[in-house]
Amino acid sequence: MRLSLAFGLFLAATPALTTPALADVEAVLDTHILPGTAAFAEAAQALETSAAADCRPEHVQPAWNAAMDAWMGIGHLRLGPQEQAALTIAFWPDSRNSGRRTLARVIESEDPLGTDAEDFAQVSAAARGLYALETMLYDPQFSGYAADSYECRLVQVMTEDLAEQAGDLDGAWRRKFAPELRHAGEPDNALFLSEAEAERALFTQLHGGVEFNADQRLGQVLGTPGRPVPARAETWRSGRSLRNLTLSMEALHRMARALAEGPVPAVDEAFDAVAYFAEGIEDPAFQDVTDPAAHVRLESLQGQIRMVGDALSLAIGEAMGIAPGFNALDGD
């Protein structure tokens, strides 16, 4: 039923696939990227303040969730200052559990690096940022610490480190990279030699974010045929795997509208189909993926997300002069 409905929606939108779309770099910056980096910096600062007041998990968790929500609004951006910053803010996937193992070693030895935010920047990227904090706040083997413990101070340091990274990221966008995008093609712009280069860079981020949701946020947990991997679901300990996916798709939809200077029916229909299928997911942490029916629902959702990528390529990418078959993750 869901598959046939979504397919019908997509076909109904097909005549609009050739509707011209003009790329609006200014709108993407002013309504999507810069408000998003500011919101994330604000949320990360609130998280630091919360942990400083009371480091215990039950007190810090609401602020951590708010920071994660804010990151989902911009996490698909992997260009400019965010290309490297994302590694230490959001180290995921981590299929080898390197973050968890590193945190265990730091705690076992009571490493001095874990007591100072400036020194903590030397720690492995896997043990920094939002996902490492989830381990500290939700993993039963880590989250039972007392207010006067080494782990308490470690959590405070981790939130200080994250807040500093978020502030630096917002500042770097505003001071350097947003102006470069905004003034693409001007004589002194060595990064973007034409407006078309800036437009293509943003489209690449948009399309790549959709692919990441299909290939990683769902692909990791779906695993290989006959071998799903529940423990690879994103932030499954905090029960927000589906929330991450939903917020990310909503942010990508907003970015698509900004880039295309308004609604594009075929794209809107494809995003709406994803939202419809997401409502049918019963376990928000995707831990029921070993059940055949639940597995099919997740695979169907993945298929709908791939259709968003197709719609973007046809309805926006081609109008921007980007060839069919474009893949944001392989450099085509």
Automatic annotation (TrEMBL):
<dbReference type="InterPro" id="IPR034984">
    <property type="entry name" value="Imelysin-like_IPPA"/>
</dbReference>
<dbReference type="Pfam" id="PF09375">
    <property type="entry name" value="Peptidase_M75"/>
</dbReference>
<feature type="domain" description="Imelysin-like">
    <location>
        <begin position="34"/>
        <end position="306"/>
    </location>
</feature>
<dbReference type="InterPro" id="IPR018976">
    <property type="entry name" value="Imelysin-like"/>
</dbReference>
<feature type="signal peptide">
    <location>
        <begin position="1"/>
        <end position="23"/>
    </location>
</feature>
<keyword id="KW-0732">Signal</keyword>
<protein>
    <submittedName>
        <fullName>Signal peptidase</fullName>
    </submittedName>
</protein>
<dbReference type="GO" id="GO:0030313">
    <property type="term" value="C:cell envelope"/>
</dbReference>
<dbReference type="InterPro" id="IPR038352">
    <property type="entry name" value="Imelysin_sf"/>
</dbReference>
